[in-house]
């Protein structure tokens, strides 16, 4: 440990092994009014954007209720969002904090476990907001699956159980501010070794309150044990004004690959019952095939009016209801594809920003972006995809027709004889 004045230096001034000159400004450890912070998710997101932070995670204590508001606020400001939470656990008879990233916020086991921890937490209740932090919102309680199991029924959660829950929810687990738990280097290393056997994914090596020397020591500890590294300021109060922390690009890339590893789309598919099925089931009346049809009078008085009514009904369906229904489905499909394309575009834009900031070369960014886009799937059976072509047109990447990659496509036609890739290039122009 070093004197306080020296500790105020950022770790960026320390020459870390394998790091480049440029850094990425992030904050994967901050708190809002949904735990013990004094800012709403919207105000916090605004201040992060003003500070130039590019990637952020809200990590309220044992609460994920502020994530939707935080994500929406960051989205409006062009900042990438990562689901996060700081979980209160027990390790070696002491309280230890675990940072979880990249999990599914809708995971019910995680939700009920966090709720149990909040209800037993010794909050000082001074307001309605404080009470809501402890008990959770009504919406949260109503939406929680009653079949979900809490691993903290007693109000205490062992760290190995917490790591397992995070992994089941699809996330990664990091030891928060490690020196706060154990200041002795050798004792801390022993703890990290034991935690890795429990599934620990990484440590919070870059922590704003720590000195540059401490941050570098934690970075080297993570390197020795092949662990990931996260970075955060542990922001709580407006008086801190410590909204961002610099992260070396090599550690950032490893972190992003691990935590942002899922490239698949999860979109609700459009499904509706056929309005014709129930109507058509009643079209054939018992009298339609009756022997009485042989009587002319019956035909004139019963059959023809019934047939006329049926024809009018079918005309209404095919002429008005079905086109309207089909148009509604097409509009919803267009909206879905538009949103999915925006998601693919965001991936490309993220790598473009990395190139502009000198984190990777243009060729590296293009290769990584192409691999991410190639893995994207959507649709009811996950068989719909994206491809990349240029304006010549020449195929850059096609996930199913790899033999086309790198080939000129002027003469390529579909079964109808249409030069579809030329049409696509013309439409872009």
Task: Please characterize this protein's 3D structure.
The protein is of the alpha/beta class and 429 residues long. It contains 15 helices and eleven strands. It has helices at residues 4-7, 41-50, 67-76, 108-120, 128-135, 138-143, 159-168, 178-181, 185-197, 212-224, 249-259, 275-280, 296-356, 362-375, 420-428; strands at 24-27, 55-56, 80-81, 84-91, 94-101, 172-175, 202-207, 228-232, 245-247, 388-389, 395-397. The chain has a five-stranded mixed beta sheet with strand order 4-5-6-7-8. A four-stranded mixed beta sheet has the order 3-2-1-9. Helix 13 (296-356) runs antiparallel to helix 14. 31% of the residues are buried.
Give a quick rundown of the structure:
With 429 residues, this protein is an alpha/beta fold. Helix content is 45%, strand content 11%.
